[in-house]
Specification:
CATH architecture: Alpha-Beta Barrel
Strand order of the largest sheet: 1-4-5-6-7-8-9-10
Helix content: 40-55%
Organism: Acidicapsa dinghuensis
Shape: globular
Distance between the termini: 49 Å
Number of strands: 10
Pfam families: IGPS (PF00218)
Domain Indole-3-glycerol phosphate synthase: 5-259
Mean pLDDT: 94
Keywords: Amino-acid biosynthesis, Aromatic amino acid biosynthesis, Decarboxylase, Lyase, Tryptophan biosynthesis
CATH class: Alpha Beta
CATH superfamily: Aldolase class I
Structural class: alpha/beta
Catalytic activity: 1-(2-carboxyphenylamino)-1-deoxy-D-ribulose 5-phosphate + H(+) = (1S,2R)-1-C-(indol-3-yl)glycerol 3-phosphate + CO2 + H2O
């Protein structure tokens, strides 16, 4: 685990401990029962069958880039993304490093019909119940931050309460561990950002694509900014594309997403022909 990730995970443990002291799991379970998960991975599969499936991310800031978007009306952005063709949303809930919150997840999810991923550093089962209690439909597990036993246990816990699981890898070794799990995730994401240097290489996804089974949703993450990027990754076998910063930096993220999707569809001959 990188030094930076170690620091974030340590902070997350403190946050979880504070949340546990403030809100008992029984209260979370009561709230969770009020939300019916909407099938995050299935939404991506359905959209991917007829065109690029974009997971539009609500991301205000990051440790490496600082503040990304000052004008951050969560409900407005979520609706913009849905109207502009996003298949699903990803909502950052880490506060210390990404200026996110569980409230943002709740607001975004309530504003749209498309399903939402809680994007955070999951290190405790409490956070999984917390995700559904705040209207999340899926959780993120980061292989670099977890043991194989933790990934298996957290996947099982999420599935038991009808949440989908996206496991994120950065290397072939991490992918090996995910593929060896007894209980498979619903989606496997390849993050093109190097955790140690923060450098982004789309080649990371391209190199690992062939090894990801076809029976899980294959997600490319980070560094996707153009239709050409999406076409290249789709041709390599990816079903969905998690896009955050490049959209968040646009004056009108929804319009930027619409343009990106239109350009991608027109660049894929099979999709273009079927649309005629």
């Amino acid at each position: 685990m990188s030094t930076h990730l170690n620091k974030i995970v340590a902070t997350t443990r403190e946050t979880v401990a504070a949340n546990k002291a403030r809100v008992p799991v029984s209260e979370l379970e009561r709230r969770a029962a009020l939300h019916r998960p909407r099938g995050w991975a299935n939404a991506l599969s359905v959209r991917s069958a007829c065109g690029p499936a974009v997971i539009a991310e609500l991301k205000k800031a990051s440790p490496s880039k600082g503040l990304i978007r000052a004008d951050f009306n969560v409900e407005h952005l979520a609706r913009q993304y849905e109207t502009s063709g996003a298949a699903a949303l990803s909502v950052l809930t880490d506060e210390p490093y990404f200026q996110g919150s569980l409230r943002n997840l709740e607001l975004a999810s309530a504003a749209v019909a498309i399903p939402c991923l809680r994007k955070d550093f999951t290190i405790d089962e409490y956070q999984i119940v917390e995700a559904r209690a705040h209207r999340g439909d899926a959780i993120l597990l980061i292989a670099a931050a977890l043991t194989s036993e933790e990934m298996h246990r957290f996947t099982h816990t999420a599935h038991a309460i009808d949440l989908d699981v996206l496991i994120e890898v950065h290397t072939g070794e991490e992918l090996d561990r995910v593929l060896a799990l007894d209980e498979a995730p619903d989606a496997i994401g390849v993050n093109n950002r190097n955790l140690k240097t923060f450098a982004v290489r789309l080649e990371t996804s391209l190199e690992l694509a062939v090894r990801i089974p076809a029976d899980v949703v294959r997600v490319a993450e980070s560094g996707i900014a153009t239709a050409a990027d999406m076409v290249r990754l789709r041709e390599a076998g990816f079903d969905a594309f998690l896009i955050g910063e490049s959209l968040m930096r646009q004056p009108d993220p929804g319009a930027a997403l619409s343009t990106l999707l239109a350009e991608a569809v027109s660049s894929i001959p099979v999709l273009h022909e079927s649309a005629q």
